[in-house]
Amino acid sequence: MDNKTQSILLGVIAAVVLICGAVYLDGQYEEHRKAELRHENYKRAAEVDVKSPGVKHSWE
């Protein structure tokens, strides 16, 4: 392989690695965001539960 072909191949490999890394990190961020939203929803539901007098709970 000559230098030009080797440089092009290295560039293509680097681009593929960067794209895969970006896709992976985006997926991680989405999972983290879903978990945060789930936590916020549970917190909000618990606040509403506490503030509502006379609500029958499943454990009562």
Structural class: mainly alpha
Runs with pLDDT <50, length 5+?
A: none
Number of helical runs?
1
User: How would the global form be characterised?
Assistant: rod-shaped
Helix % is: over 70%
Rounded to an integer in angstroms, the radius of gyration calculated over CA atoms is 25 Å
Sketch the major β-sheet: none
What is the ordering of alpha helices and beta strands?
H
Ends apart, CA distance between termini: 76 Å
Number of strands: 0
Instruction: Give the overall pLDDT as a whole number.
Output: 84
Beta-strand percentage range: under 5%
Could you walk me through the main structural features you see in this protein, from its secondary elements to its overall organization?
This protein is mostly helical and 60 residues long. The protein has a domain at 1-33. 82% of the residues lie in helices and 0% in strands. The chain is built from 1 helix and no strands. The radius of gyration is 25 Å and the shape is rod-shaped. The termini are far apart. The mean pLDDT is 84.
